[in-house]
């Protein structure tokens, strides 16, 4: 009899609440929380920072998975992903370009670094694959 591995799933999702004044407060499906800022000089995360953060976090996790798949995880020291973006000049308001810098530290040649980066970005990372795609939006409205 063959044993079937079960994959653990994690509840995902977020709820943002905003009153007549103040800033949004975001809560994750697992009870994490974060206050959002909107001022140009306020420390903290604004909505675009969260988008860039999601992509950066997904890419470093995916790079580690890629290194494991390539059998070189033991040579990986650290992965850093820095993500910024450029907003489109025209409407609708959106990010037109993501600028991603991956620093993959470890005992690798350039071809392995590029292979890890490519696998992470285009095969493994759910966030980058979603951004590249055309996901369906289903919105309900209540009062």
List the helices and strands and how they pair.
Layout: E1 14-17, E2 25-28, E3 33-35, H1 47-69, E4 76-87, E5 95-106, H2 110-124, H3 126-132
Antiparallel strand pairs: 1-2, 2-3, 4-5
Helix pairs in contact: 1-2
Written account of the structure:
With 143 residues, the protein is α+β, with helices and mostly antiparallel strands. The chain has 2 domains: 13-41, no CATH class; 46-132, K homology (KH) domain (GMP Synthetase, Chain A, domain 3). The chain contains 3 helices and 5 strands. The strands form 2 sheets. Strands 1-2-3 form a 3-stranded antiparallel beta sheet, with no helix packed on it. The model has no long low-confidence stretch (mean pLDDT 95).
CATH superfamily annotation of the largest domain:
K homology (KH) domain
CATH overall fold name of the largest domain: GMP Synthetase, Chain A, domain 3
The CATH class assignment of the largest domain is Alpha Beta
On the 0 to 100 scale, the average pLDDT is 95
- The oligomeric state of the chains shown is single chain
Individual helix count: 3
- How many domains, in number, for the residues? 2
Low-confidence stretches: none
Largest sheet: 3 strands, antiparallel
Rounded Rg: 18 Å
**Percent of residues in β-strands:** 15-25%
Task: Walk across the major sheet and give the strand order.
Answer: 1-2-3
- Roughly how many Å apart are the termini? 54 Å
Structural class: alpha+beta
Overall, the morphology is: globular
The CATH level-2 architecture of the largest domain is identified as 2-Layer Sandwich
What proportion of the residues is helical, as a percent range?
25-40%
Q: Tally of extended strands?
A: 5
Order of helices and strands: EEEHEEHH
Organism: Pararhizobium capsulatum DSM 1112
Protein name: OsmC-like protein
Pfam families: OsmC
């Amino acid at each position: 009899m063959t044993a079937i591995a079960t994959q653990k799933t994690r509840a995902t999702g977020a709820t943002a609440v905003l009153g007549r004044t103040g800033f949004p407060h975001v809560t994750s499906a697992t009870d994490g929380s974060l206050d959002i800022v909107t001022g140009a000089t306020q420390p903290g995360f604004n909505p675009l920072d969260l988008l860039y953060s999601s992509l950066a976090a997904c890419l470093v996790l995916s790079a580690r998975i890629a290194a494991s798949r390539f059998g070189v995880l033991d040579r990986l020291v650290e992965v850093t992903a820095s993500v910024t973006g450029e907003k489109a000049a025209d409407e609708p308001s959106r990010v037109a370009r993501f600028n991603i810098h991956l620093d993959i530290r470890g005992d690798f040649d350039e071809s392995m670094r590029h292979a890890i980066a490519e696998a992470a970005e285009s095969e493994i990372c759910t966030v980058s694959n979603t951004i590249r795609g055309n996901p369906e939006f289903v919105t309900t409205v209540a009062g």
